[in-house]
Amino acid sequence: MAFPSRALRCLALPVLLGLALPVIGQSAPVPQPAPTPQPNPAPATDRAVPQGMPVPASVAPAATDPLAPLPPIPGVDQSAWLYKGSDLPQDKMWKFGRLANGLRFAVRRNGVPPGQVAVRVRIDAGSLNEQASERGFAHLIEHLSFRGSQHVPDGEAKRIWQRLGATFGSDSNASTTPTQTVYQLDLPGATEAGLDESLKILSGMMAAPSLTAQSLNAERPVVLAERREQPGPQVRYADKLRQTLFAGQPLAERSPIGQLATLEAATPETVRAFHDRWYRPERAVVIISGDMDPLLLAKLVTKNFGGWQGVGANPADPDFGKPKADAPVAGALVEPSMPPVVAMAVLRPWQYQDDTAIFNQKRMVDMVAARLISRRLENRARAGGSFLQASVALDDVSRSANLTTVNVVPLGDNWEVALKDVRAVIADAMATPPTQGEIDRELADYDAILRNQVETARVEAGSKQADDMVGALDIRETVTAPETSYQILRQAIDKKMFTPATVLASTRKIFQGTATRALVNTRTAQPDAVAKLTAALKADVRPLAESRRRRGAITFAQLPKLGKPGTVVSREKVDELGLEKVTFANGVRLLLLANDGETGRVYIRVRFGRGYDALPATRESPAWAADLALVAGGIGKFDQGDLDRLTAGRTMGMDFDIDDDAFAFNALSSPGDYADNLKLIAAKLIAPRWDAAPVNRAKAAMLAGYDGFDSSPDGVLGHDLERLLRGGDPRWGTPPREAVMATTPESFKALWAPLLASGPIEVSVFGDVKADDAIKAVAESLGAIPARPPVVGPVPPIRFPAHVDTPVVRTHTGPADQAAAVIAWPTGGGSAGDQVRNRLDVLAQVFADRLFDRLRSQAGASYSPQVASQWPIGLPGGGRMIAIGMVAPDKVDFFLATARSIAADLASKPIDADELQRIKRPMAQRLARMASGNMFWMQRLGGAAYDPQRIEATRRLAKDFVSIGPADLQAVAAKYLRPDTDWTLKVVPRAK
Question: Are 839 and 963 in contact (CB under 8 A)?
Fold first, then answer.
């Protein structure tokens, strides 16, 4: 059973009907069945944005029972091949089949987002299938398949996908790992004809890619550019870690990116030999989850892939080997640009297991044991231990080993002490049973995660389901319905599988194996590092174990008191958006979008103060530390560990960020938890705790990263670019090392205490709530705090650097073949300029598409050049159009000249209709998908309680987007992409 990711997702549901653009060759989009009956929308000409409220999404109604088997399909074995050997209940929404040629498929109906079909084609071959002379071929074929194939002329694939509404790189992409190659297509607004054409193209890509000398010579520079642009320190660390942990196994030397020598030596014949050996229907699975009849999906797969025949005999799977007990225990690396780190692993052979209920329940006990140790390590780090961070995890790696990994980031350079302290926590966990209270704490979170997946299953995206199926196939497991996963956990609890004795036994088990190995990275050479690490792994650490801190129960009643519930002084509806604006007596304003479009999800955002406008613009400040230290500082008398226990088993959160014109606390909660989540945020505003430990931890973490900032062009850009583009304004970018060193808990409090206590508050509650209940919840939380003093004072000016005739130069210490080039033009800002902003967004996509074609597809000079328009809604200026490329040093001037040439062309003449269609159709589909989820509306309307212009901009978004034509784009290009205002930067290797 593949365990679902906990990552939060933004779903898309149907609202922006006015954005539908016809596919080339069609008079209009072919409508797909709606998942549920929808309110009758007003005509598109009467509204800029159709009914703004996200609407319910579910599996679209079918003529037959969606759980019933498909009718027989001639020549297709429709048995549920995925569940062979498993006693887990089959997720009957999935329909399975095996064609006569051996290709398997799994298809299902899913209406999230409506009209989209997610396709994955998985080839059971990756870099571990390569011979020594073929290193990198699996990844190279992935590139060549997208470049051209039986049904696609060379270089035309991107344009074809665009005309079908898919964005290259996000909707259409591929990935190669040691064990698989996966081709991805998320087809928005899919029709039967469009999907049929797409599957035809994909089948040609698998069976007959263009493996000619012309295509190979054109795409090889792109692959080498991708290889060149990888960050050197991280690549060297990953390579050394693989070599250390998997010594004696193929995985130790099989990075998917390959080797320069083998890639340069590749010929059409040698690449075809790899393709013909491993690209075969018996090793392929087509997975589709989307808004169509699964019988139609199965028939289209059969039609388009049924004729594929492999070349020669199907080879046996390669032997991935097993961990070697006699390989070296320790390894060392000197990477000055990375912080010291120790990675330790206990390795066991990977072996196939039938995916049964008891197998999963035993693994759940192992996971609880690992989570419990990780929590103890985190508590010790928070208290100011010898390490910044440490954690324990379980994983199956590339079907080569089953691992228990321990990662340790020491405080400073004393990695030996940090490793021993971490091992002491593990040794204590192996020696003494945990309390039942500790176990129940982890189970509460585990239960909440799986229960939330059940509650939100109705709005799980089809792309997520397709990706979960790919992950399960890779590790030779199954997928199950969220209800089944939750039942397996509950049954394990009922059987009392989670006791101090069982968790102790599991802890001991996960730290036993064939071998224990470790790698240490140090900033400076330590000739005896391997010997020290070997000794540290064997040292008796039992005397270092600390006594376990017993913590009592905490309830919300113990949080700081908020006051009497606030009263509502005004309540206004914005009908066309489904929005309500509510004002409370203490001045707090609420934006409320109550809907069940995302079942079980409630999005909360509390904006307060003035954001970047309130930070010092003429001096350095401790603002940088807020992300790590502000929330972690605690509330009232409770530290972060206390608050973790308070929220255990509940869907609650409190993340912090800084917007242009406000600070914000954010959370993704649930209908049963959001009211208390609001109280938690309110308590943070009125009674923050100023714990010194999180500030010191943030400071140590920040300082640990400085040596890596100049290790690659990417690192330099991450450190320097934002501040350079702001004319040196200290509110943005990474502060100097001296400013971080000067930060103290006292200076942190001096900055943030008044910022938390002042300025207007806007609360946004979007999601699965009842309107009156949500207003009551805000009245009892943010509405119950005292009125806040206003923030006064001028808004600091926003600067953009002056035009330069020659690029500003920064240097890096990484590989000599890496460089970066940047060109930017100033634009504008503010909510009143929304129409200009929309045009610049489209212009940026046109610019990006042309730059991609000229730099990657034609010249092979850059793997992934980027172009973006950034228009700050909450600031009066500071916007820019920016293009960035990672290139070889001798291609910097070429990049800048190409970007300037494109800019000049966009300003001098309008683009043609086909190019505009290829750009706007994927943008429209992406916008429609985003706009159907609550996060889109929350982001668009943030600040609207105080700035009505943002509501007006949202009202006319769709109409304005549809109206954008070639002349509009030429006009904004002529206004902003001027050669006398551009600013350029290059990051080149430092002279040695």
Answer: no
Q: In this structure, how many other beta carbons lie within 10 angstroms of the beta carbon of residue 494?
A: 8
The DSSP code sequence of 535-591 is HHHHS--GGGPPPPPP-----GGGSPP--SPP-EEEEEEEGGGTEEEEEETTS-EEE
Within its chain, how far is the Cα of 522 from the centroid? 29
CB 950 within 8 A of CB 775: no
Q: What is the pLDDT of residue 550?
A: 67
The torsion of the CA quartet 580, 581, 583, 589, rounded to 10 degrees, works out to 120
Cα 549 to its chain centre, rounded Å, is: 35
Q: What is the C-alpha to C-alpha distance for residues 928 and 936, in angstroms, rounded to an integer?
A: 10
Beta strand 589-594 pairing with 579-584? antiparallel
d(CA 609, CA 278): 59
Q: What does the block give as tokens for 678?
A: 């609001």
Residue with tokens 């206003």: 790
Q: Per-residue b/e over 744-783, b at no fewer than 16 CB within 10 Å?
A: ebeebbebbeebbebbbbbbbbbbbbebeebbebbbbbbb
Mean pLDDT by groups of 10 residues along the chain of 992 residues:
34 25 26 31 30 44 77 97 96 98 98 94 98 98 94 86 85 95 95 96 97 94 91 91 97 96 98 98 98 98 98 96 96 93 98 96 98 96 92 97 98 95 96 96 96 94 97 96 97 98 98 98 95 95 76 89 97 94 98 95 98 96 97 96 94 96 97 98 98 96 90 93 97 96 98 97 98 98 96 87 97 94 97 96 97 82 89 95 95 96 98 95 90 93 97 95 97 98 98 84
CA neighbor of 262 nearest in space, from 128, 133, 147 = 133
C-beta of residue 785 within 8 angstroms of C-beta of residue 686: yes
869 within 8 A of 827, measured Cβ to Cβ: yes
* 742: CB partners within 8 A, 6+ apart: 620
Residues pairing with 903 in the sheet: none
Q: How far apart, in whole angstroms, are the C-alpha atoms of residue 883 and residue 984? A: 10
Distance of alpha carbon 42 from alpha carbon 50, whole angstroms: 7
The DSSP 8-state label assigned to residue 853 in this structure reads I
Task: State the Cα–Cα distance between residues 155 and 164, nearest whole angstrom.
Answer: 16
What is the CB neighbour count within 10 angstroms for residue 577? 22
Residue 629: phi and psi, rounded to 5, are: -115, -20
H or E segment at 489?
helix 482-494
What pLDDT was estimated at residue 226?
92
Tokens 């100023």 appear where?
A: 690
How many Å apart are CA 196 and CA 979, to the nearest integer?
46
Q: Can you tell me which residue has the tokens 């730099």?
A: 855
* Beta strand pairing call for 983-989 and 819-826: antiparallel
CA-based torsion, 62, 66, 68, 74: positive or negative: positive
Q: Would the pTM of this model clear 0.85, i.e. be above it?
A: yes
* Sequence-separated (6 or more) residues with CB below 8 Å from residue 747: 622
CB-based contacts of 631, cutoff 8 Å, min separation 6: 640, 654, 655, 656, 665, 684
pLDDT of residue 552: 73
What is the longest distance spanned by two Cα atoms in the chain? Answer: 79
Within 10 angstroms of residue 319's Cβ, the number of other Cβ atoms is 9
Please state whether beta strands 602-608 and 568-574 pair in parallel, antiparallel, or not at all (unpaired): unpaired
Distance CA 320, CA 177 (A): 14
Query: What are the DSSP calls for 105-138, one per residue?
Result: EEEEE--SSTT-EEEEEEES--GGG--GGGTTHH
Distance separating alpha carbons of residues 187 and 462, to the nearest angstrom: 11
Residue 168 DSSP symbol: B
Strands 602-608 and 663-669 turn out to be: antiparallel
3-class secondary structure, 672: coil
Q: Which residues pair with 77 in a beta bridge?
A: 98
> Is the distance from CB of 668 to CB of 548 less than 8 angstroms?
no
